Amino acid sequence: MIDPVALWTVIILLGLGSFGLRFVFTGLVGDRPLPAWVLRHLRYTAVAVLPGLVAPLVVWPEATGGQLDAPRLAAALVTLAAGLWTRNVVLSICLGAAALYGGLYLLG
Amino acid sequence: MTTETTKSIFWQGVRDGAPFILVIIPFSTLFGVVATEAGLSVFETLTFSVLVIAGAAQFTAVELLRNDVPTVIVLISALAVNLRMAMYSASLTPYLGGARLWQRALAAYFTVDQTYACSIVKFEQSPDWTVGQRLTYFFAVAVPICPLWYAFTVVGAVIGSAIPEGLALDFAIPITFLAIIAPMLRTRAHVAAALVSVVAALVLAFLPYNLGLLAAGILAMMAGAEVERRAEQRAERRAEK
């Protein structure tokens, strides 16, 4: 059982801390201009963080206990290819889901 | 001159946010289930989702709390998972920095993966938008996402029962993010950043407290910026000839 004091400490401080991280630049820096090299790095924040967030989930899926799994890998590749080719997010999700369930049905 | 009305921008935002409902509902339901299974009450689970409003960090915190990890470590780990929010905040600053303080505070609260991903693409495409129009779009993306995040946390907490594993809902998250990332790979610099991010995140996955992702993010940003700088230099040299 989780200790209620520890739990509420985490809920409140994590809430405040997460807000602080979100507020640090938008809120405190405001509209003061940022140097060009900073902006050049910031242009890549999304493509720098999100692929790294996804990669371990694809290669070591928690549902299979961290074992590389053919249907999940195929679904990831289909989604990525569909996204590159069509540039359509919803269509890519649908194709990826179809690949996942198709793969699970055929191989599962 | 503005050719788009506030109303049309609002509905654009809602439309762009709507596809994420597919991922928000299973993800928040799952959090509700996991949290109540770890012993949290429905009220504690909902408070968690409202105050923290960041799925990956919430899962991390509950998982570590369940394993009796010291409170300080729980906080550091979950905040490390959320460090990308600071990068989002920095990246939104050139677009939203001109807004009033309370508007920036509200935007900060609603800065999540989805509002960020949609907004940054839209703001780059629409350089003539005013700060007000950008805020309208940003909050509009949150409209179909954040209320459902709270609501389905409660649904998951109330259900409390296991979701059948055969549904493979675990993979809704990677598929959705891959579908968002792919259209972002517009230039060689973006592709380089993404590749460095993937390789570094996997190689550095052994680092504790998710520091690997943070390091991968920083390395990948540097890679993207460097490729862009070199491409600019090449373009300049060609122009001189």
TrEMBL record, chain A:
Transmembrane segment boundaries: 6-30, 42-60, 89-107
Record's keyword annotation contains Transmembrane helix: yes
InterPro entries: Brnchd-chn_aa_trnsp_AzlD
Record key words, sorted: Membrane, Transmembrane, Transmembrane helix
The organism's place on the tree of life at top rank: Bacteria
Full protein name: Branched-chain amino acid transport protein
From TrEMBL, chain B:
Keyword Plastid: no
Any one GO biological process: L-valine transmembrane transport
Superkingdom: Bacteria
Transmembrane recorded as keyword: yes
Pfam families according to UniProt: AzlC (PF03591)
Entry-linked InterPro entries: Brnchd-chn_aa_trnsp_permease
Transmembrane regions listed in the UniProt entry: 20-40, 46-65, 72-91, 137-160, 167-185, 191-224
UniProt keyword terms in alphabetical order: Cell membrane, Membrane, Transmembrane, Transmembrane helix, Transport
Membrane topology summary: Multi-pass membrane protein
A GO cellular component entry from the record: plasma membrane
Subcellular compartments: Cell membrane
Similarity comment: family membership: Belongs to the AzlC family.
Stated name of the protein: Predicted branched-chain amino acid permease (Azaleucine resistance)
Provenance organism: Roseovarius litoreus
